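Summary for the lay section of the report: proteins are chains of building blocks that fold into shapes. Here we show the chain for E3 SUMO-protein ligase NSE2 and then a coded description of the shape we predicted for it.
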Amino acid sequence: ISFNAIDSALSSLKNCQSLINSGMDVATQVALDLVESFNEEEDVNNMEKVMLEYATMDRQLNHYIKAFEETINQVKREKPENLPDLENLAQEKFLEMESKNSDSDLQMNEKYMYFKDQLKEMKKQYHGNDTIEQIDEDIAVTRSQMNFICPITQVTMKRPVRNKVCGHTYEEDAILEIIQTQKQKKKKVRCPKMGCSHVDVKGSDLVPDEALKRVIDSQNKQ
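The coded shape description reads as follows.
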């Protein structure tokens, strides 16, 4: 049996995955734009619905790809005379996976989790003062600007990344350089934020903090 056609089809499906990921990135940016522009909450909620639709498509596509890959591996182990119907077998595996779907699956989608996280940070940056106690405006500005300073470089961040484990932010190039240097020495990296107890900062735990970057860029323009 030639599996070239099947491999080609799987490759096309994986390309669709990258398009879904791109769509989720765009939806995240649009949602952050809406918060920054103080649009109606309903508009932001609509973008969350879009994200969940994308997450649903991503889950379905993952199941389809996995079903076909498992089918191919199974068929390769069979004798020629015992070959099953590929399409039916893949469909059975796909439906079995889909039958175990739950809403919590979508909530755990990595892109959706990032969307929720950045939305929360954006709302905190732009609307936080509406919910906290009234304090002196100059003090509030000073506290806010302190969050713009990288604990490594001690200057305002240009490309902040946030550690998913401890929540602290750093300049991307600075923290990655430290991680790389310590990796060569076979040593772990302690979070550079003073007082933080996290002692194993990994590159995989860092995510771009788009919300903070927008606030910093906005302040720099003023």
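Put simply, here is one thing we learned. Strands lie at 160-163, 169-171, 206-208.
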